[in-house]
Write a structure and sequence with these properties.
Radius of gyration: 20 Å
Distance between the termini: 75 Å
Strand content: under 5%
Largest sheet: none
Order of helices and strands: HHHHHHHHHHH
Structural class: mainly alpha
Shape: globular
Number of domains: 1
Helix content: over 70%
Number of strands: 0
């Protein structure tokens, strides 16, 4: 009897609706560590302003899409995501280059054209790649990643896992692709963070100034 009662509870916890709301909460949590770290330390090294701007622009696009499609969870989560997103952009405003501004402007134009042609939802599906690719590029090219918040990328693994599971349950290829892209980038960033910190420790260890030479 107890097993029979436990089965519906387990099933309800694994329902797409529950997983979707939990995934949304984890997504919002992922956005917080980076601006908090920037505000606390004032160190922007390794953080991409273009990635931050593209992410915030994508959030505006999702708000518009959610409102026009009548999807309250979509625009509601996107409005909340704008708070840490715009905070991050503001904290990185002095690091933004002209090239970053041009790249962000192109993303705005692409979204506007997509909205005018009725393809906004399809284009926004690539938001994760557009917003995270500049950060991945910065991480791979830079040896100083002191401004990056590792917690962002650890949480991103949970974010990708939950949305990937939701996509499997809902048979949604876009969400599964989102999960694969986010998971791949998160693991790459974490490995790169580990490697650069290991390298710094090794350099300090062999520096004559620290070796007593």
């Amino acid at each position: 009897m107890a097993e029979a009662e436990a089965a519906p509870v387990t099933s309800s916890l694994m329902s797409p609706e529950v997983i979707g709301w939990v995934a949304s909460a984890v997504f919002l949590c992922r956005l917080l560590p980076q601006p908090v770290r920037l505000a606390r330390t004032g160190v922007p090294d390794g953080v991409s302003p273009l990635a931050a701007m593209n992410g915030a622009i994508g959030d505006f696009g999702w708000v518009a899409y959610g409102i026009t499609a009548g999807l309250v969870p979509v625009w509601g989560v996107s409005v909340l995501a704008l708070i840490p997103g715009l905070w991050t952009v503001a904290l990185l405003r002095r690091q933004a280059s002209r090239q970053d501004l041009v790249g962000a402007g192109l993303w705005v134009g692409f979204i506007l054209v997509a909205g005018a042609t009725g393809q906004l939802g399809l284009v926004l599906g690539g938001t994760v790649l557009v917003s995270l690719a500049p950060q991945l590029w910065r991480v791979l090219r830079s040896d100083d990643l002191g401004g990056l918040a590792p917690a962002t990328w650890w949480i991103a693994i949970g974010d990708a896992t939950l949305w990937g599971l939701y996509g499997v349950l809902e048979h949604d290829p876009a969400l599964m692709l989102y999960a694969v892209i986010l998971l791949s980038i998160a693991i790459t960033v974490l490995v790169r963070l580990w490697w650069t910190r290991t390298r710094v420790v090794a350099d300090v260890a062999i520096d004559p100034a620290f070796a007593g030479a």
